[in-house]
Amino acid sequence: MRLLTDAPRSRAQLRDAMARKDVPEDVAEAVLDRFVEVGLIDDAEFAGMLVRTRHQERHQSRRAIAVELRRKGVDDETAQVALEQVGSDDEESAARVLVRRKLAQTASLDAQVRARRTYAALGRRGYPPAMVGRILREELAALDGADEVVPFDD
Predict the structure, then answer these.
(1) Is 95 inside any structural domain?
(2) For residue range 100-133, what is the model confidence (pLDDT) as tens digits?
(3) Does residue 149 sit within a domain?
(4) What is the rounded distance in angstroms from the CA atom of residue 101 to the CA atom of residue 96?
(5) Would you say residue 1 has pLDDT above 90?
(6) Which of 15, 16, 49, 144 has the fewest CB atoms lying closer than 10 Å?
(7) 103 lies in the same domain as 71
């Protein structure tokens, strides 16, 4: 119960926490079943909330969010349904925001360094290099009025 007061958790996270406290497996499953019955745990709602917050606030890609959901014990089917909230256009818009932010942060640096740092930042958030390269070229062209050489071909 204490873990649920801090933040929503998946059933698997709570099961793991009880296992660390040496709660017998049958007791843990009974408690978790009861939590589901009364609505204290709902993996579908948990996954949906995580997808919304990670995408809107942290601008993470669907791939990065899927990895986090898997790590938190959400099954693949539930994760897929939750990830449908983020469309391709949403993902590209979030990537564009990150590219613009990174380019603004690195404005005083060489174009190659700016591109390299932008690729790295978006790669850590799970964005594919081809998408990053295309958006980066577009944003550099919009900023500078001309195409600059960007490393890492699509």
Answers:
(1) yes
(2) 999 999 999 998 999 999 999 999 999 999 999 9
(3) no
(4) 8
(5) no
(6) 144
(7) no
